[in-house]
């Protein structure tokens, strides 16, 4: 502590240094107070800012009133204290702006009022209020002047809008009177419409009555026209019919005589018809008997053919077995021939060959036996089926003959009876061809009933005939004969083969049972001869088998055709049998009808004289009727023409009266709507007139229209004036300048005592700096409060000032102690950088990117933040705490680094490497 005390003793003993120390303490105060007070409240003294006003406006007439917007504006500006308004001529104003006497010229043009009055023109013109500024005189003055010009523009707009509103309300008042007059006129229109509506109702009622009457008249005329046309058409038709009736009656009268003769002839023909019908029914009975016999024979034939057709597969199977046996026989014979040829080759192999041949011989025997059984079965089947088929064919031929005879009888009798009746009627004299035809049709109606019933039987017989004609019986018998011949050949061939085979078997047995080589050789020769005979017989057997195989498909086809034809014939005969029975059952009805026909013709002949008398009377009446109808038909066209004209006229009257009535009703609807609309119009006009009359416009109304909005400003924090806004920046800057001057003036690199350790030297300089920084902070803060600065928090305000002063003091002391004058230069550069990058004047978003980049790394940035929070409390407690923490860290870091620096300098001094005490000595020689 001795060195600290000694440091302060030397300070107090050196009067110049002590005076410098005291003056340095007031440097921040002087800097801050003079600077802030010079710009403490510049916006509060805008009324002292001179502005020139030039009024060139000419008044105009607007809706019967004089509009002088320029003069009114001058009057208002004379009472306006926001700027120092000076009303001059154009020349004086320009000269004053040039001389720097005025900061702005506001010019009101000569057509200012004229343009204001053009608001209702087709092409309205805006009012142009021009102003001219001199920014080189003072830019802030230009900004303030521009703000005044803009406010002036708003006031002019409001004043002109007020004039517009007054004019509009005057017109509304006039229109209210017009609404009242229009309401009176509308009431008169309503009265007239009511009277028109009543008259229209009367007209519509009468027109409706006329239209209804016209429609009734039109309908009656149309009905008359239609009825008359129908009447005249009927008259014409009746006249034509009367003529035809007269002609027909005449013809009828002329034909009554021949009719009498014809009826007599018809009576005779009916008698002959009854006789022919009896003959016809007898033939039908005969036909039915023949059909029954044919049906019985066809049934037997069909059964036989079915049996024969069932045996054909057995026959084919036997032929197949025969063919297989033949193949086995041929194989055995070939083996035997080969063996006999090899027999003479050597006796040594005789036993083995004979043993082998015995197996072949046994196989051959078995095949021969199978062949014999097949031939026997085939021969039996062919002979048996041939006998049955012959019987059935004979029965079938007899049935067909009877059937054909019956069919011929039916057709000939039916044609004979019909033609006989027709010839008898046609031969009747005295009857017209038309009457003959009617009689024939009446008789034919009875005959057609029987003919229609027999048509089915005739068709069935013809179908059966067609089926039988398709059967080739001769070909079938021929095929059977060929089959028998083939079977016979097969049997003969088998016998030959069988005989040769037996001879071969005997020779083999003899050779086996004999002794000696001669016996064996003879047996071998006999064996060879027997085998050759067997081969010849086998050749015949092959020929017979082939012929039999070639005939089997023909036989199968023929038997199938016989069976199918037999089935068709059986079905046809069944249907024919049913038809014959129906003919027989209906013969009685035919005979009864013929008898009734005969009785009817007798009655007809008795009534003919009475018919002749009635026809003569009918002829006389029909002549009179035809004359009257012809006269009536001749007068019909005139009557039709008159009624047509009447109908056309009535239609036109009805259409015209309907259109007139509809139009009258539409007119009535329109008058009703018009009356309702007129009533509503009268009421609305009266209401509108009353509303206009009740509307009272005052100066408040006009002011509201001219300036309908009001700007409301709410402050998050309150900053009273420009001085308070700039105070954080100026106070921080002043403290930095004070610390910089202190380290320039005070001999901080000197020691107050020699031979002391470094830390004592550090404590002695630290005490000077600490006391100076705290004193500058307290003086600056206290005097600024006395001059009108109003902090939000006194504690935060003084705390910020003290921490800021200490941080700046030890930062600059570190630079000055470590680097001497270059360090002081660095401190000056840091001051310049902080002036631009700390954000003390304008918001950082309005500055360049470089200054935004260095802003977070400058100590003054955090000092300004802390001062702003202490003065206006708008930054928030977190920002204040962070700022104070950063400044404290800077202070502590600089104090620590200062100790290290001074320790290093002390070591160099002790090593005589530097002149620590004489580096600032006046007029000392530089090293």
Automatic annotation (TrEMBL):
Q: Where in the cell is it found?
A: Membrane
Pfam families listed in its UniProt record:
ABC2_membrane_3
In this chain the ABC-2 type transporter transmembrane domain maps to 21-167, 686-900
Q: Which molecular-function annotations from GO does this UniProt entry contain?
A: ABC-type transporter activity
The answer to keyword Manganese applying to this record is no
- Where's it mainly located? membrane
Q: How does it sit in the membrane?
A: Multi-pass membrane protein
* Keyword annotations of the record: Membrane, Transmembrane, Transmembrane helix
- Fetch the InterPro entries from UniProt: ABC2_TM, Phage_infect_YhgE_C, Phage_infect_YhgE_N, Serralysin-like_metalloprot_C, T7SS_ABC-Transporter, xxxLxxG_rpt
Q: Which GO terms describe its cellular component?
A: membrane
From the Swiss-Prot or TrEMBL record, give the protein name: YhgE/Pip domain-containing protein
């Amino acid at each position: 502590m001795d060195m600290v005390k000694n440091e302060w003793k030397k300070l107090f003993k050196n009067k110049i240094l002590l005076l410098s120390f005291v003056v340095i303490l007031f440097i921040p105060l002087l800097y801050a107070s003079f600077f802030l007070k010079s710009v403490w409240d510049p916006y509060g003294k805008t009324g002292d800012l001179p502005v020139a006003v030039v009024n060139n406006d000419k008044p105009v007439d607007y809706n019967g009133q004089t509009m002088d917007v320029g003069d009114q504006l001058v009057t208002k500006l004379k009472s306006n204290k926001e700027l120092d308004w000076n009303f001059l001529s154009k020349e004086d104003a320009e000269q004053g702006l040039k001389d720097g006497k005025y900061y702005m010229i506001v010019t009101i043009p000569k057509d200012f009022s004229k343009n204001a009055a053009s608001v209702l023109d087709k092409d309205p013109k805006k009012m142009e209020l021009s102003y001219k500024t001199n920014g080189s005189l003072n830019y802030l003055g230009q900004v303030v002047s521009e703000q005044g010009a803009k406010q002036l523009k708003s006031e002019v707009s409001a004043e002109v809008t007020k004039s517009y509103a007054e004019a509009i309300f005057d017109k509304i008042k006039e229109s209210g009177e017009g609404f009242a007059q229009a309401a009176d006129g509308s009431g008169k229109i309503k009265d007239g419409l009511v009277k028109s509506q009543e008259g229209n109702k009367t007209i519509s009622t009468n027109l409706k009555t006329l239209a209804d009457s016209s429609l009734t008249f039109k309908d009656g005329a149309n009905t008359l026209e239609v009825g008359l046309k129908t009447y005249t058409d009927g008259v014409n038709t009746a006249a034509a019919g009367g003529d035809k009736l007269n002609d027909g009656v005449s013809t009828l009268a002329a034909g009554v005589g021949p009719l009498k003769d014809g009826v007599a002839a018809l009576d005779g023909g009916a008698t002959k018809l009854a006789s022919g019908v009896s003959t016809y029914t007898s033939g039908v009975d005969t036909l039915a008997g023949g059909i029954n016999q044919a049906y019985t024979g066809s049934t037997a034939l069909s059964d036989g053919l079915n049996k024969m057709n069932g045996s054909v597969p057995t026959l084919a199977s036997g032929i197949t077995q025969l063919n297989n046996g033949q193949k086995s026989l041929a194989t055995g014979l070939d083996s035997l021939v080969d063996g006999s040829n090899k027999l003479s080759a050597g006796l040594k192999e005789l036993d083995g060959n004979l043993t082998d041949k015995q197996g072949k011989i046994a196989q051959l025997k078995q095949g021969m036996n199978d062949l014999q059984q097949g031939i026997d079965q085939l021969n039996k089947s062919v002979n048996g089926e041939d006998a049955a088929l012959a019987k059935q064919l004979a029965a079938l031929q007899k049935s067909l003959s009877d059937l054909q005879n019956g069919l011929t009888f039916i057709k000939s009798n039916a044609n004979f009876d019909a033609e006989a009746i027709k010839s008898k009627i046609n031969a009747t004299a005295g009857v017209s061809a038309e009457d003959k035809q009617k009689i024939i049709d009446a008789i034919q109606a009875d005959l057609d009933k029987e003919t229609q019933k027999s048509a089915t039987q005739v068709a069935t017989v013809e179908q059966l005939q067609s089926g039988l004609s398709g059967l080739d019986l001769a070909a079938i018998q021929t095929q059977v004969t060929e089959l028998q011949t083939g079977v016979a050949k097969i049997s003969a061939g088998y016998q030959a083969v069988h005989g040769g085979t037996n001879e071969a078997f005997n020779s083999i047995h003899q050779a086996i049972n004999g002794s000696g080589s001669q016996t064996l050789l003879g047996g071998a020769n006999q064996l060879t001869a027997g085998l050759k005979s067997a081969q010849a017989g086998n050749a015949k057997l092959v020929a017979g088998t082939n012929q039999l195989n070639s005939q089997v498909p023909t036989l199968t086809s023929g038997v199938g055709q016989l069976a199918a034809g037999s089935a068709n014939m059986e079905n046809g005969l069944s249907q024919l049998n049913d038809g014959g029975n129906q003919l027989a059952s209906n013969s009685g009805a035919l005979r009864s009808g013929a008898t009734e026909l005969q009785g009817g013709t007798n009655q007809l002949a008795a009534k003919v004289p009475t018919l002749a008398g009635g026809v003569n009377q009918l002829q006389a009446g029909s002549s009179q009727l035809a004359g009257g109808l012809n006269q009536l038909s001749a007068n019909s066209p005139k009557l039709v023409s008159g009624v047509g004209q009447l109908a056309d006229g009535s239609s036109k009257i009805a259409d015209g009266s309907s259109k007139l009535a509809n139009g009258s009703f539409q007119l009535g609807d329109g008058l009703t709507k018009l009356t309702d609309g007129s009533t509503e119009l009268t009421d609305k006009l009266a209401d509108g007139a009353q509303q206009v009359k009740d509307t009272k416009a005052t100066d408040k109304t006009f002011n509201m229209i001219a300036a309908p909005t009001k700007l409301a400003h709410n402050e998050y924090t309150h900053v009273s004036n420009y001085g308070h806004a700039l105070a954080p920046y100026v106070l921080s800057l002043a403290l930095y300048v004070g610390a910089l001057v202190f380290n320039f003036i005070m001999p901080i690199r000197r020691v107050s005592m020699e031979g002391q350790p470094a830390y004592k030297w550090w404590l002695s300089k630290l005490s000077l700096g600490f006391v100076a920084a705290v004193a500058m902070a307290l003086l600056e803060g206290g005097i600024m409060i006395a001059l009108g600065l109003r902090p939000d928090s006194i504690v935060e305000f003084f705390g910020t000032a003290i921490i800021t002063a200490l941080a700046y003091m030890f930062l600059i002391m570190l630079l000055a102690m470590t680097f001497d004058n270059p360090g002081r230069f660095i401190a000056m550069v840091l001051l310049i950088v902080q002036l631009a990058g700390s954000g003390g004047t304008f918001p950082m978003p309005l500055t360049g990117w470089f200054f935004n980049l260095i802003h977070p790394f400058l100590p003054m940035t955090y000092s300004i933040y802390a001062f702003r929070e202490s003065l206006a409390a708008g930054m928030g407690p977190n920002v204040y705490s962070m700022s104070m923490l950063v400044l404290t860290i800077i202070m502590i870091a600089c104090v620590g680094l200062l100790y290290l620096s001074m320790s290093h300098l002390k070591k160099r001094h002790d090593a005589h490497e530097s002149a620590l005490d004489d580096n600032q000595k006046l007029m000392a020689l530089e090293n």
